[in-house]
Every structure is written in C-alpha cells, then in structure tokens.
Protein: Ground-like domain-containing protein
Amino acid sequence: MASGCGSLFGGGGGGCCCSGGCGRKKRSVEEPEFRGIVSRGEQDMLCNSPELKSLIVQSMRSSPELSSKSLQSALEDHDSHRYVVVCSENPFHYSIKHDSAYCGARNGSHYCQAFAI
Structure:
C-alpha cells in the first residue's frame, strides 16, 4: 500500500508533496540600480541642452505629427547625432541615461521630446 500522499498519481503538481512545504516558493526580485534621469510628468520638461531646446521650440507646429516631422528634419540638418523624437497631445513619462542629450518643450496643444541615441 502506498503511504499517505493525498494524490492518486503521486505529487500534487503545484509543488505539493508528502513531506510538507506545499506551494510554490517565491523568488526574491532585486530592483536594478538605475543611474539615469526620470521625468515627473506634465510640468517636468527636463532639458540638458539649451541648443536642443531652441530647435524644439522653433520646430513646434500645429499638431504632434507635423511637429515630430519638422523637429526630426531640423535635427538631421543640425548635427550628426541620431535622435528619437516623440510628440504627443498627452504628457508622458520616460527615463534616460544621464549623459545623453535630451530636451522637451510644450506648445498650447502638445508636447515634444527629443533624445539622442
């Protein structure tokens, strides 16, 4: 006769066993060290480049789509760095390495951010 394991086929599948300690074990998860800069939302237009800020402000148009195209073209004409440009009617949160060029601006209807990659 089989000893008193409560299952017809042996172990219980979800980590249960006859020796006690049933259930799955939780793994500890450590937060990775973050060494960048994080925006705090709508009023937080972080910028580490006055020149980039000027280009963004000059490139803002009537819509996010037109602004992003205008800004991307201005950045390509301006220097050899590559940039990610994001324009949106809603504020957004982001994080970026502290040593990357980045900047943002807002006009009456939308926000634009540019990040050097």
About this structure: The longest strand covers residues 83-88.
